[in-house]
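Entry
Fold in token form

___
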Amino acid sequence: MTGQPPDPEFNESMLLEHADRGWKAEQDFAEKLSARSRTIATMSASLVGLLVIGLGAVFRGLATSDPPAWLRWPVAILTAACAVIAGSFLVRAIICLSVSKRYPERAIKLKQQDEESNPDGKPPTASYGLRLRREVGEWAIENLDPRALLVAKSVFSSADDLRRRNLREKYRVQAAEDQFGKGLWGLLLAASCLVISFGVLFVLGD
């Protein structure tokens, strides 16, 4: 006989409950990742649309107003540059979440950083800590009902598959969040340029 039970009263029911906990942990993690993904994609798309509308309004305002040429063109060029940079980061955030065949480069870097900070190779996913130790598995194979083992094995296998997909999605979402944050900084810079320029125009108008 190999292995040992985790508890003297360990039985088929406890094994199935444990397998179910592992599956539900990864399922909850997947739902949270999905919610984060939808939020980033929705906000990024909305901000890109507002950015296009806002730029159009700004340039129409500059065209119909009469600021001095030395101020008009620098303001227009600087604002457009900040807006384009911000828009590019927001679009890249959407691409990180929508293009499934190509793993984002930023996601690969985040994965490498996690691997370097976890030398034991433990993936930072929800149900990793719920995996049975090897000796417990060996004991269960020899002592528990084969029918319960078959069901538990199927659930553990499904949880492992979902864990791998969640781990991949986790880095994709983090990469998208990174691009979204940079896009927000670009928007703040563009807004700052506009506030300063309109402030100067107001002073000159007086």
Summary: The CA atoms of residues 13 and 99 lie 42 Å apart.
